[in-house]
Each structure stands twice: as C-alpha cells, then as structure tokens.
C-alpha cells in the first residue's frame, strides 16, 4: 500500500502546499489536530513567512480572543507595549505561553519594521471572548460601542451610560463559574438580558446606518473596531442566552454560536484585508474543516457546522483548508499500520504533503480511523479527506 500512497504524497514544503490550492484562494486555513504542541505552530510560522514573502499574504488570524488580539496587532504593527506584556494579554486560552507564538509576534514585528504601513502584516483573533469555563461579560464591548456612537452622533440617539450600566448589573453574574454547567445560574434570559439584546441590535443598526458620518468623523480603523465591538456584543448576548437554555440542545447550540462568531470575525478580517492581500488562518482542524463537526459528551452526540464549513459555503473556492496530523507523540501512541497516519509513517519524508484528490485512487481501500490514546487529539477521518485541499503529516511530535 505504501507504493500506491507515494503517488499521492511528496515531501512537504510551503511552496508544494500552495501548489495544491485554487488560484481563487482568499484565505488559507491551516489546522492543527491538537493544542499545546509547538511543532504545528512552528509549521504555521514557516508557512506564513513563505506566504508573506512569495504569495502576497498580508495578515494572519488565529484561534484566539478577537479583543485580546488587538493588543498583539498593535505590537506587531506599531511596536506598542513590550513583548512580555503582549504575550500575557494579547492571547486567550493560555496560548500566550507558547514559544512559537512568541516567535510569531517577534518575526512579524521585525518584518513590519522594514515595511511601508500598507504592507505590514496584521494580526487578528477570530474567536470570541470565550473560555471553556464560560464567557466574558458584555459590558466592555457594549460600553465601548455606546461611547463611540455617543461621541460622534450625540447622546440623543443612544442610551445613557447609566441605563446601560443598570441593565448589565455586576459582571460577576455573567462570568460566574457555575454558569457553564448550570443554566439556572446564567443571567442570559432575564428581562435585563433581553433588553440588552435589543439595545445591542439597535446600536449595531445605528453603526451601519450612520457609517458615512462616522467614517468622516473618525478613522477607518476606529470604525472597524466599533464594528468588532458590535459583533462581539451581539454574539456574547446570544451565547449567554444559550447558556441559560435548559433543553438537550444546549451544548450543540453553544458550539454552533461559537463557530458563527468565529466565521463572522474571519469574514470581517477578509473584507478588511482583501485590498492588501490574502489571509492565513490557524486553528484546530475541527474549527476549519468543511464537514459537519461532532463531539460526544456523557454519551450524547452533539453536531454543528464549524467556522470552516460556514466560510467555505460563503467563499466557495476562495476558501482552502490544509489539515495536519501526526504519527507518534514523544515516541508513544503509535498509529496502527492500517490507519492513514500509520500508512504515512511508512514513507521516508521528514514531513509529508498529501494531495487528497489523488489519495482515493492511490489506495485500494479506505484506511481505518485512528483511535488515539490522547483524548485531546482529534484524528483525521479518512472518510472526509476529500473535503480538504491538502494534508500535512509530521511523523513525530
């Protein structure tokens, strides 16, 4: 079987990867099969350098809080702040502890220091201000959006700061750790929360309706940031409402709402960056895949459409997805020889690039799905590789 697989595989290089993509590609999505492994982030960094220097890419978006990422972007584009502080505050999910993420920001800052402002590589986050333990209070984004509109449109069109503060109440009721597991602890479906959702919708409408005036009064960057605040406010309030849901669909709804927030954020990045260049996005394979995502918790199967599935539906051939997978981890958890990872491990390449379009004809039968020892690793399903544009295999991490 290894001989047949050689027809679909070759040594990996960034140029070999992009040769598999449609010329219409606007965003290249590079996935990782598990978090916390710098080998995949190192691969991302290497790819980004190539894309910037040879393929006209001018931005990178990562699976991290879209608001926190503003701090990281200010550092790489303007040199604002010091790197230690930026690593601590410019990422969510603990990703600021990664040496590869630190190397990414350092390279971007050094590169941008030699560029004209219009050619600088921008840094974006596509995730909402969400963690496994819960979601942020909507206060910061609603307050910032309200203040922006009040400053440029006058106070008559927007609610007072006191009205907003009274509806929000203490932040602790939004961020209490019990909210994630107990719908009854969530304020997401209270009368105040319903009023806040209407208010956020009205503020977002004002932002759109008065865009010409607002753009004339403030910078384009300030307007885009206000749009980010509006998206995040409405997304957070939907998410908090779902946290208060007592139906069996609660978890699937939360996963779908997170995916929607990520898709809308990435869509906004593409609209912002399309005149400057293309975008590399990096996140878990499960967020970027085109096929239906699924997760089993407590014996219950939950399904939802991911960021990648939503963006692929919107962009068509403008969306490209390259999945990554691996063989052994620290010399253990060796994949069975009948799995895709086991077959790829028999090839001699230090890193292997697979063309999924040739994979089906190269193999006489579909490989088995890997059963990993590590529950944080989501194995690549051979039945869905035809929905990827490339697969990158690392023999060992």
From TrEMBL:
Return the InterPro entries for the record: Emycin_Estase, Hydrolase/PRTase-associated, UCP036794_erythomycin
Please name the Pfam families in this protein's record: Erythro_esteras (PF05139)
Name this protein carries in UniProt = Erythromycin esterase family protein
Source organism per UniProt: Kitasatospora terrestris
């Amino acid at each position: 079987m290894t001989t047949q697989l050689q027809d679909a595989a070759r040594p990996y290089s960034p140029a070999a990867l992009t040769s598999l993509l449609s010329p219409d590609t606007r965003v290249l999505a590079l996935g990782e099969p598990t978090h916390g492994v710098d080998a995949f982030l190192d691969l991302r960094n290497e790819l980004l350098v190539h894309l910037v220097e040879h393929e006209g890419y001018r931005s990178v978006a990562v699976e991290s809080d879209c608001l926190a990422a503003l701090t990281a972007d200010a550092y790489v584009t303007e040199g604002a702040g010091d790197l230690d502080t930026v690593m601590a505050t410019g990422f969510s999910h603990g990703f600021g502890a990664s040496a590869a993420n630190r190397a990414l920001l350092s390279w971007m800052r050094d590169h941008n220091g030699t560029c004209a402002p219009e050619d600088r590589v921008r840094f974006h986050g596509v995730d909402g201000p969400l963690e496994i333990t819960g979601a942020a209070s909507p206060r910061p984004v609603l307050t910032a959006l309200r203040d922006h509109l009040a400053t440029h449109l006058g106070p008559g069109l927007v609610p007072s700061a006191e009205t907003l503060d009274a509806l929000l109440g203490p932040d602790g009721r939004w961020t209490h750790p019990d909210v994630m597991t107990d719908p009854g602890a969530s304020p997401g479906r209270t009368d105040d929360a319903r009023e806040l959702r209407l208010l956020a919708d009205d503020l977002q409408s004002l932002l759109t309706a008065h865009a010409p005036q607002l753009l004339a009064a403030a910078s384009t960057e300030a307007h885009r940031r206000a749009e980010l605040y509006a998206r995040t406010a409405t997304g957070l309030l939907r998410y908090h409402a779902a946290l208060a849901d007592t139906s069996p669909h609660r978890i699937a709804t939360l996963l779908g709402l997170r995916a929607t927030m990520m898709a809308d954020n990435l869509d906004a990045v593409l609209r912002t960056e399309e005149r400057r260049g293309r975008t590399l996005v990096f996140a878990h394979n499960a967020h970027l895949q085109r096929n239906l995502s699924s997760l089993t918790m407590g014996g219950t199967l939950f399904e939802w459409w991911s960021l990648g599935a939503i963006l692929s539906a919107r962009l068509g051939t403008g969306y490209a997805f390259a999945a990554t997978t691996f063989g052994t981890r620290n010399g253990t958890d060796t994949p069975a020889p009948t799995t895709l990872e086991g077959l790829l491990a028999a090839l001699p390449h230090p890193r292997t690039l697979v063309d999924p379009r040739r994979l089906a004809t190269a193999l006489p039968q579909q490989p088995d799905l890997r059963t990993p020892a590590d529950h944080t690793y989501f194995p690549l399903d051979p039945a869905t590789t035809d929905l990827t544009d490339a697969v990158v295999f690392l023999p060992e991490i």
